[in-house]
Amino acid sequence: MKIKIGAYEAKTKLPMILRNVKGGQSYTITNRGEDVAELIPSVNMNKKNKDMAVEKIKDLMLGDPIKGVNIKDMISEGRA
């Protein structure tokens, strides 16, 4: 969902807005009520976030394995 924000407010809150955009939020910047610009996350940022998520999952799987679970049994039961 895009948030509409006036140009003056965008100027005064730019650091906060950029943090939010980095987190995936999009903004429509207006001037006197007229839409003039879209501020959206960079395509490279989305790829970077996906890559970081994959690395976190890998770290979790390698660093903290689930104890007492037999993957072969889960597959044979149709649970995996």
Explain what you see.
- The protein is an alpha+beta fold and 80 residues long.
- It has one domain (2-67): YefM-like fold (3-Layer(aba) Sandwich).
- The chain has four helices and three strands.
- It has helices at residues 7-12, 14-22, 43-63, 71-76; strands spanning 2-6, 26-31, 34-39.
- A three-stranded mixed beta sheet has the order 1-2-3.
- The longest helix is centred in the middle third of the chain and has 21 residues, at 43-63.
- The radius of gyration is 21 Å and the shape is elongated.
- The model has no long low-confidence stretch (mean pLDDT 85).
CATH topology: YefM-like fold
Sheet bearing the most strands, described? 3 strands, mixed
Strand content: 15-25%
Distance between the termini: 34 Å
Order of helices and strands: EHHEEHH
Task: Give the helices and strands, then pairings.
Layout: E1 2-6, H1 7-12, H2 14-22, E2 26-31, E3 34-39, H3 43-63, H4 71-76
Parallel strand pairs: 1-2
Antiparallel strand pairs: 2-3
Features of the shown structure:
alpha+beta; 21% strand; three-stranded mixed beta sheet; 3 strands; YefM-like fold; 80 residues; elongated; single chain
Provide a short characterization of the protein structure.
By secondary structure, the protein is of the alpha+beta class. 52% of the residues lie in helices and 21% in strands. The protein contains 4 helices and 3 strands.
